Amino acid sequence: MMSRKFLILINTGTPDKPGVREVRRYLSEFLNDRRVIDIPWLLRKLLVNIIIVPFRAPVSTRKYLKLWTEEGSPLLFNLENLVGKVKSCLKDEYEVIGAMRYGNPSLQNTLEHVRNQSPEQIIIFPLYPHYASSTTGSVNEFIFSKVRHWDIIPEIRLIGQFYSHPAYINAMTIHLRGYDPSKFDHVLFSYHGLPLSHIERIHPGSDCRKCSCEKAFPSECSMCYKATCYATTRLLAEKLNLSPGKFSTAFQSRLTHRWLEPFTDVVLQNLASGGTRKVLVIAPSFVADCLETIIEIDEEYRSLFKKEGGEEFVMVKSMNDNDEWVKAIIQISDL
Predict the structure, then answer these.
(1) 56: which of 164, 176, 266, 333 lies 20 to 30 Å off by Cα?
(2) Cα 202 from chain centroid (whole Å)
(3) Sheet of 155-158, strand order
(4) How many Å is the Cα radius of gyration of the chain?
(5) Separation in Å, CA 176 to CA 152, 189, 311, 321
(6) pLDDT for the residue numbered 203
């Protein structure tokens, strides 16, 4: 008998194929989300549909062609593998489903499937360690917008950020020890960047670039993406016994200079030109490998580091479907 309890693991999304039409469709859905580009509706529609998507789709398609494997998109097949492992651990107690906020398998279709099973309980698990309005916030808002129309609303539990959860930190630590961080000159923790406007909304009237969260966690910053990223770095550095000065934090994937700094590409160039020869790069905000880890960091940033004189560049694979991460998901879900 199929369980009427559901655990939905959600990641951002991927095009169906590495073709211009499919990439255009994916980017359009993604970038038209008001929580991703937080400007007035009409301006966002014009900017995204007339300027960004038509020009960005061909460029992104070339990157997706490099990313694609015989199994398809790494983000998708890693999610499918993760779902299979979590399902095996939970046996028949929960039906475990993978969904994407944008693209397929769509979150909307997943919710309809669950609704048709007359669910008793739904656990929503956005696979983002750190809260951001454009990631976890977008998922939660979408869930609310759909479920509020259901005649019967079951128990719904939302898993929030888990950047400091002992199970996540332990899984990451075990994973990272396999790379022996001590043999590198420097360890760089790279997180996905965000526009400063997203951070400023959390701290109205304050300049987030002057916040002390880089050194210690301010009590009023529990939902601040920048503060939680630095907190994760400190926790992992402590577990790995990294000495001060041997590690740093940076932010990647910027679109403008009005994004969180320091920028990962700039930091890597400065490290290499300053004499750092061996660097280990860790991306804690990505629990599954994707365009940003495989192409942006491991290909593009590797090239920048070596052009400036760097010799050894090692990119840590995301946890994907490793067993410690599977255990962590179950513990974070309190199952």
Answers:
(1) 266
(2) 19
(3) 95-103, 5-14, 121-126, 155-158
(4) 20
(5) 44, 11, 21, 15
(6) 77
CA distance 139 to 158: 10
Inter-CA distances, 60 with 37, 53, 160, 238, Å: 18, 10, 30, 37
| CA pair distance 192, 288, nearest whole angstrom | 13
- Does residue 324 register a pLDDT over 70? yes
* Res 165: pLDDT: 98
d(CA 89, CA 188): 33
For the stretch 208-258, pLDDT in tens is 767 888 888 887 888 999 999 999 999 999 999 999 999 999 999 999 999
Residues 6+ apart with CB under 8 A from 230: 213, 214, 217, 249
CA 115 vs CA 18, 80, 83, 146: distances in Å: 32, 21, 19, 10
Per-residue pLDDT, 1? 57
Burial code (b: 16+ CB inside 10 Å, e: under 16) for 204-240 equals: eeeebeebebeeebeeebebbbbbbbbbbbbbbbeeb
DSSP 251: E
**Relative orientation angle of helices 138-147 and 107-115, to the nearest 10 degrees:** 40
Burial code of 272-301, b = ≥16 C-beta within 10 A, e = fewer?
beeebeebbbbbbbbbbbbbbbbbbbbeeb
pLDDT in tens, 10-26: 999 999 999 999 999 99
**Domains defined along the chain, listed by start:** 5-161 (3.40.50.1400), 166-315 (3.40.50.1400)
pLDDT per position as a tens digit, 141-178: 999 999 999 999 999 999 999 999 999 999 999 999 99
Residue 25, both tokens: 């469709």
